[in-house]
Amino acid sequence: MNSIVVKDLRHSYNGTVAVDGISFNVAQGEIFGLLGPNGAGKTTTTEILVGLKKRKAGLVEVLGFDPSDQDEELKSRIGVQLQIPSLFQRLTVKELLNLFATFYPDPLNIEEVIEKVGLQDKTKTISMKLSGGQLQRLSVALALVSNGDLIFLDEPTTGLDPQARRGLWDVIENLKKEGKTVFLTTHYMDEAEKLCDRVAIIDYGKVIALSSPNDLIKSNFTEQALEFDVEADQKAFLHEKLPSVSKIEFNEDKATVYTQDVTKTVAELLAITDNGFRLKSFTVRSASLEDVFLKLTGRRIR
Ligand SMILES: Nc1ncnc2c1ncn2[C@@H]1O[C@H](COP(=O)(O)OP(=O)(O)OP(=O)(O)O)[C@@H](O)[C@H]1O
Ligand SMILES: [Mg+2]
């Protein structure tokens, strides 16, 4: 069963196209990631799905509802964390959580949520006096308190310290264990690779790839990369001695060679160590979702 169905969704702002005909489904119980460079249309899509923006065209179903109908039942069944939260600045962490809890029929226990996001020390602090990362955690907490079947998180870990990030990964994985569906946007490819069952990569408002992180890596990179130190006078010589590699790249004193057959390439490397070549700082690197993202979207900063 699908928690979210999106068909040919389109949105624009005064003629500027932000979402240019995207389609995807999110299955019940999965963690689905929407990835893409700045301005790709992630937040616009999220806001349409949660009923904060009215789409220009296309079909959208969230838990069987059309979010543009502003159905109260739908609102009570989803939890939402926004990239730029607009919160009452003079309410404390605890007051805000209590307020949000009243919006939902079966909210989570406030103390439990505070502990999950690690805001125990800040329960009596008003939101305008929280640090950036603390505010971010509060906004995630406000999504969690809903205890909704479907949780939307728009860049939940941006600005968090590494420990808080890991903590939040556990929280998100637990949501899945509880059978909830998670719709997530992120710029951290390691996070998407770890958490998401499937990801859609969007660029300029269009879906350019959609699959599990593993399948995306496999279908985009059939080779592995071996890296090692190399001296200037050895560079030419490597080409002739490593027939199993498809490509050699030099970056200052580092060589990266690409191969379909790691064992064979390593054997070739060992065979030339007799000719005065010493293998130093040797690593084998598999492609990651980050490599896929860079390959598909380009390295340009938008
Ligand atoms: N309120 C708005 N008015 C006009 N244009 C907007 C508005 N909100 C977004 N846009 C434009 O729509 C496009 C998509 O923006 P959106 O916020 O959906 O991107 P995003 O993928 O969430 O980016 P980011 O990674 O930076 O959060 C951008 O070109 C942006 O400039
Ligand atoms: Mg955004």
Explained architecture:
It is a single chain. The chain is α/β, with parallel strands linked by helices and 302 residues long. The chain is built from 11 helices and 13 strands. The strands form 3 sheets. A 6-stranded mixed sheet has the order 5-6-7-3-8-9, sandwiched between helices. Strand 11 and strand 12 form a beta hairpin. Helix 8 (213-220) packs across helix 11 (289-297). The structure holds adenosine-5'-triphosphate and magnesium ion (MG). Residues 42-43, 83, 154 line the site of magnesium ion.
CATH superfamily of the largest domain: P-loop containing nucleotide triphosphate hydrolases
Kindly give the count of domains: 2
Q: Which residue ranges are poorly predicted, with pLDDT under 50 across at least 5 consecutive positions?
A: none
Rg (CA only): 24 Å
Tell me, briefly, the overall form. elongated
Give the helix level as a range of percent. 25-40%
- The strand line-up of the biggest sheet is 5-6-7-3-8-9
Q: Count of helices?
A: 11
* Beta-strand content: 25-35%
What structural category arises from helix and sheet content? alpha/beta
Hetero groups in this structure are: adenosine-5'-triphosphate, magnesium ion
Distance between the termini: 37 Å
CATH architectural arrangement of the largest domain: 3-Layer(aba) Sandwich
Mean pLDDT across every amino acid position: 92
What is the CATH class name of the largest domain? Alpha Beta
Q: What summary fits the major beta sheet? A: 6 strands, mixed
N-to-C series of helices and strands: EEEHEHEHHHEHEHEEHEHEEHEH
Question: What is the β-strand count?
Answer: 13
CATH topology of the largest domain: Rossmann fold
